[in-house]
Design brief:
20% of the residues lie in helices and 29% in strands. By secondary structure, the chain is of the alpha+beta class. The chain has two domains: 203 residues, no CATH class; 145 residues, no CATH class. The strands form eight sheets. Strands 2, 3, 4, 5, 6, 8, 11, 16 and 18 form a nine-stranded mixed β-sheet that branches. Strand 5 and strand 6 form a beta hairpin.
Length: 426
């Protein structure tokens, strides 16, 4: 009898224990399924928003990367858009990769596999030395870009960009092990430049441009020399071409990527920012500094006649060039009511010149005086920054101080359609 009772007890234990195991298994499974539903549901919503962007008004827009990929013909030779390991890269000279961002014209370098878009300004914004021989992430150039250039743009359109800090001793053997993803702006790299070349042509360069690349060799820094790549001393002056990375949620507002109809990713507004083009009675200026109550603008052309800086002084405050600009040049302008005294280095005036640190838009303008001095000479902005004798006739690119509250009549502030400014009593 005792043996039978023991057997029965064992059987009862088994009957009681099995349902508990099943219950725990079911609960764990249910939790796992619910977790998967939440995780993939969030991802579904995220990617739906990326590929189906909307304006605040509810208007549905196209995703920029998706539109470019679906409407472009992928090519395998010649100029156009190439598919390379999941990334889309523009190659050659004549490619429709123009994009307008904050009134500034950029070129699309590549569309990454995650649909972020890398773009480069269609001109260089200054010429400067690389500085101390450090990685690009620690260089004077990136410090300058983050202080002067990056604030022009809304951070909500930008993704962090990738910088490869590997030492490159041979351009045919490019590695990328030391990656820095902590910045939102950079300049072109060797890979960017080489990937753009097709049949010895590239949309990135012309016959005279030389600009820094962010890659280093063992004791120098790489830069372009027309369509070639060479290394130079960090103290040399070369052009700076800023590169930004747009988020994969970037929407297309309008445009087809051509030079006359670039892609636009934001609705036009009448806000005046750095890089905005202004039309004052058919005189075109570009905003290079925005203050609390003033604008600094640079002429989009040089004066018709070349002039000397001075016969004896390289200080702008004492120069004959300042005297000419404050009298003859200012008197010729029909928008006197819009002018405002601002500081041009240590000189307070309504007219002046650009300095070394100022952003310089329209890199086609060359051979013009700057405010900065070097010994007895004056700096000259050219395809490579040099100094000039003050008594040699050079180009002059006037800059003005303007009131900030300008009334805009029309235009979108870009180079193609500058803001038309209402001029009182014109």
């Amino acid at each position: 009898m005792k043996k039978r009772e023991k057997v029965k007890k064992r059987k009862k234990r088994k009957i009681i224990k099995a349902p508990r195991v099943q219950t725990i298994f079911c609960l764990v499974s249910l939790a796992f399924i619910l977790g998967c539903c939440v995780f993939y549901g969030i991802r579904l919503v995220k990617y739906y928003k990326i590929y189906n962007p909307k304006l605040e008004t509810g208007e549905v827009l196209e995703n920029l990367a998706s539109n470019i990929i679906s409407t472009s013909q992928i090519v395998y030779e010649g100029d156009g858009l190439y598919l390379n390991n999941g990334n889309y890269i523009y190659k050659g000279e004549n490619v429709n990769n123009y994009i307008l961002i904050n009134n500034l014209l950029f070129r699309i370098i590549r569309i990454n596999s995650d649909r972020t878009i890398e773009v480069v300004l269609d001109e260089y914004i200054n010429e400067m030395p690389y500085g101390e021989f450090v990685t690009f992430s620690e260089s004077e150039i990136i410090e300058y870009l983050e202080e002067k250039f990056l604030p022009i743009f809304d951070s909500d359109i930008l993704a962090n960009t990738s910088i490869c800090n590997d030492v490159i001793t041979n351009v045919s053997e490019i590695t990328c092990q030391d990656i820095d993803n902590n910045h939102s702006v950079r300049i072109l790299g060797i890979t960017d430049f080489l990937n753009s070349i097709e049949s010895e042509k590239s949309y990135l360069v012309n016959d005279t441009e030389n600009f820094w690349l962010y890659n280093q060799s063992e004791d120098s820094v790489w830069h372009t020399s027309t369509l070639n790549i060479t290394s130079g001393d960090p103290s040399d002056f070369y052009g700076i071409r800023p590169v930004l990375t747009l988020k994969n949620s970037t929407a297309l507002i309008s445009g087809d990527g051509s030079s006359n109809n670039p892609y636009q990713i934001k609705k036009s507004s009448s806000e005046i920012k750095v890089g905005t083009y202004l039309d004052l009675n058919d005189d075109i200026y570009i905003v290079y500094e925005v203050g609390d109550d003033y604008l600094k603008v640079a002429s989009n052309k040089v004066l018709k006649d070349r002039r000397i800086f001075d016969e004896s002084s390289n200080e702008y405050a004492n120069s004959s060039l300042k005297e000419y600009l404050e009298s003859t040049y200012l008197d010729s302008l029909s928008y006197q009511a819009l002018l405002k005294e601002v500081d041009f280095q240590d000189v307070s005036s309504k007219v002046g010149l650009l300095s070394l640190d100022d952003l310089k838009f329209n890199s086609s303008l060359e051979n013009y005086f700057l405010l900065d001095r070097s010994d007895d000479n004056i700096y000259l902005y050219n395809s490579s920054l040099i100094t000039s004798s003050i008594s040699t006739r050079r180009n002059v690119r006037p800059c003005l101080g303007l009131v900030k509250d300008l009334k805009i009549i029309s235009g979108n502030g870009s180079k193609l359609a500058p803001f038309i400014v209402e001029v009182p009593n014109a």
